UniProtKB/TrEMBL annotation:
Its main location: membrane. This is Protein NRT1/ PTR FAMILY 8.1. GO terms for molecular function: transmembrane transporter activity. The keyword Transmembrane helix applies. It comes from Capsicum baccatum (Peruvian pepper). The lineage of its organism: Eukaryota, Viridiplantae, Streptophyta, Embryophyta, Tracheophyta. The chain crosses the membrane at residues 96-117, 137-156, 185-204, 210-229, 331-354, 374-392, 413-433, 453-477, 489-513, 533-555.
Length: 569
């Protein structure tokens, strides 16, 4: 009886060692708990991120440029910390325990942030004119909570999508088809959380108070933890394969040690284990590829490769280990093209919000919509396009292309990159029209000009459409093309494009602010945007996006997909 219910140390089922459990675990049985966790965690994250620029500007008394940069820096950090979480997951803890441990840190950070906005002595003191005064300790506690959240999300983001995909067996064609659909619905659940954050939570933050506005996301994060643990007995677990960085450096060092060694033309003589399973725990063997042949030197056997009868891993590596490194290197050019796209995406939480602040916020005569809530149209766009893509576009494309997913992952990413260009063109055009109204009617000192904020809806909706193609395409691409024992790491790499996109946005804002104010001018992005040229910044991003798309087409043309060797039945 004990053998029929074989569990690994984290409580999840090790179905590969006990196939009888396969029918009782994984697939869509386990996914609702993972999707519920992601929905609540993203509600918590976007509950902070969506309106953070307004909190920093009006409660923390920061200027527009400082507030924008602090938001993008924090958001960027949230997408750098996944490197740490991914390393721990792939090397030592496994994805299950990494998600569990970092979720606790996340909840603690949310609690600290809520206290900083609600407890007397910790929250900012504001007078009747909405002028707020802060002490150093108040600023310190606020940013402590904020960056604990950044650390917490670092253990969840690179693992949860991969952990969900792990519930589908790559060797089972039926399950493999369902896995592609999982990534679509995974992103759908993210946007359900974002929808609640950008509507209900933003309204609470503006109209009820920031204590409640931060407290509700903290509760949502606690619910996310409960949801995750509730599915424990249904999960399939992939065992950690040891440090991926150690294996990478072993190949590099072994290759340079054998700098003068010639690689044989017959790849079958290169070193590989005779076992059906790879020497890397939790990974299938990888077939040899011709590219980057310098690293094949690490798999060429020589007399000096053994020490007292044992293979020296810093001198001789398996073909699979070499191909792991090659896979990572091949991913990097594709990875780099995500940075500009992420810079475009980051404008929704910064400059789109500041642009909206200058417009007429009225939905009715008595109700005003917060400018940050316009991001709900990005969310609505994603919620609309995910089922349309999954149920309409894919079947149609499948008939035309013959590909089981309709498009290859690279084709899907490319479509989103093109769409993102139009998002920046629309935003820039709107700003030109807005500034023309300001000039014509002398609205320079008017806080909200008589132009409806709902003119921003198209730019949000188009970005949402681009996300469905590019971000979901990246999720699937980096999971599928990653070596089995490096999937968390490669998910973290895809997330780092978001971090670098935020940092690039910060850099661009600083550069254009410095250059446009050198001769005493107000610059492109002054505190009063009625005197600025925000459209220039949107044009700049559009031009960078066009160049980025050209580079993507070039590198995609030469990309070689990973070839895993299926174990014999």
């Amino acid at each position: 009886m004990a053998e029929d219910n074989k569990f690994v140390k984290d409580g999840t089922v090790d179905y590969k060692n006990n196939p009888a459990n396969k029918e009782q675990t994984g697939t869509w049985r386990a996914c609702p708990y993972i999707l519920g966790n992601e929905c609540c965690e993203r509600l918590a994250y976007y509950g902070i991120n969506t309106n953070l620029v307004n909190y920093l500007k009006f409660q923390m008394n920061e200027s527009s440029v400082v507030a924008v940069n602090n938001v993008t820096n924090w958001s960027g950090t949230c997408y750098v910390t996944p490197l740490l979480g991914a390393f721990l997951a792939d090397a030592y803890l496994g994805r299950y325990w990494t998600i569990a441990a970092f979720s606790i840190i996340y909840v603690f950070g949310m609690t600290v942030l809520t206290l900083s906005a609600s407890v007397h002595g910790l929250k900012p003191l504001c007078d009747d004119n909405n002028s707020c005064h802060l002490k150093g300790i108040q600023i310190g506690i606020f940013y402590l909570g904020l960056y604990l959240i950044a650390l917490g999300t670092g253990g969840i983001k690179p693992c949860v999508s991969s952990f969900g995909a792990d519930q589908f067996d790559d060797s089972d064609e039926t399950e493999k088809k369902k896995k592609s659909s999982f990534f679509n619905w995974f992103y759908f659940s993210i946007n359900i959380g974002a929808l609640v954050a950008s509507t209900v939570l933003v309204w609470i933050q503006i109209n009820v108070g920031w204590g409640w506005g931060f407290g509700i996301p903290a509760v949502a994060m606690a619910i996310a933890v409960v949801s995750f643990f509730s599915g424990t007995k249904l999960y399939r677990n992939q065992k950690p394969g040891g440090s991926p960085f150690t294996r990478i450096f072993q190949v590099i060092i072994a290759s340079f040690r054998k700098f003068k060694v010639k690689v044989p033309r017959d790849s079958s003589v290169l070193f590989e284990t005779n076992d059906e399973e790879s020497a890397v725990q939790g990974s299938r063997k990888l077939d040899h590829t011709e590219q980057l042949s310098f690293f094949d030197k690490a798999a060429v056997e020589t007399q000096s490769d053994t020490i007292k009868g044992s293979v020296n891993p810093w001198s001789l590596c398996t073909v699979t280990q070499v191909e792991e490194l090659k896979s990572i290197i091949r991913l990097l050019p594709i990875w780099a093209t995500g940075i500009i796209f992420s810079s475009v995406y980051s404008q929704m939480g910064t400059l789109f919000v500041l642009q909206g602040n200058t417009m007429d916020l009225h939905m009715t005569n008595s109700f005003e919509i917060p400018s940050a809530s316009l991001s709900l149209f990005d969310t609505i766009s994603v919620i609309f396009w995910v089922p349309v893509y999954d149920c309409v576009i894919v079947p149609l494309a499948r008939r035309i292309t013959g590909h089981r997913n309709g498009f290859t992952q690279l084709q899907r990413i490319a479509v989103g990159l093109v769409i993102s260009i139009f998002a920046m063109l629309i935003a820039g055009t709107l700003e030109m029209v807005r500034l023309r109204n300001v000039r014509q009617h002398n609205y320079y000192e008017m806080k909200h000009i008589p132009m409806s904020i709902f003119w921003q809806v198209p730019q949000y909706f188009v970005i949402g459409c681009a996300e469905v193609f590019t971000f979901i395409g990246q999720l699937e691409f980096f999971y599928e093309q990653a070596p089995d024992a490096m999937r968390s790491l490669c998910s973290a790499l895809s997330l780092i494009t978001t971090a670098l996109g935020n940092y690039l946005s910060t850099l661009l804002v600083n550069i254009v602010t410095d250059m446009s104010t050198r001769k005493g001018g107000l610059g492109w992005i002054p505190d009063n945007l009625n005197y600025g040229h925000l459209h220039y910044f949107f044009w700049l991003l559009a031009v960078l996006s066009v160049l980025n798309f050209g580079f993507f087409l070039f590198v995609a043309k030469f990309y070689t997909y990973k070839k895993a060797i299926a174990p014999s039945s």
